[in-house]
Amino acid sequence: MSDLRVTVDGRELEATWHDDAPETRRALERELPLEGEAVRWGDELYFDVPLDAPAENQSEAVPVGAIAYWPTGDKLCLFWGPTPASRGEEPRATAPVNVVGRLEDVSALSDLEGGARVRFDVEN
What we know:
Blueprint: E1 3-8, E2 11-17, H1 22-31, E3 34-40, E4 44-48, E5 59-61, E6 66-70, E7 75-79, E8 92-103, E9 116-123
Antiparallel strand pairs: 1-2, 1-9, 2-8, 3-4, 3-9, 4-7, 5-8, 6-7, 6-8
C-alpha cells in the first residue's frame, strides 16, 4: 500500500486515500503520476485526467479537503471551501463526483489567486 502525495504549485500536501470509490482509486493509481494545469472554481481546483473510471458512490456535496474524480468531465478535483455551486460554506461540485481521498490540511491553498500546477503521485 502506498500513500498519496499531492503538490500544488510546489506546496506538498499530506493526503490519504479513501475506499469510497475503489474502482476509481485503482484507475488513478494505474495512471500515477498525474500532473496538470488546474483551473480554479471558487475553492476548488480541477484538471483533465486520462482516466476510465465508472461513477461510484457519487455526491455533489463533499467534505473540506476532498480529492474527487468527476467521471462526466474526466477531471480530478481538490476541494477546500465553497464553490459557486455551494449552499453556505460547504464545498460542492457542479455535478456528482467520486471521492477518492482527502487532503489532511488545506490551509496552504487559502492564498491561491488563480489556477495552479497540480501533481498527484505516491510515496512507497
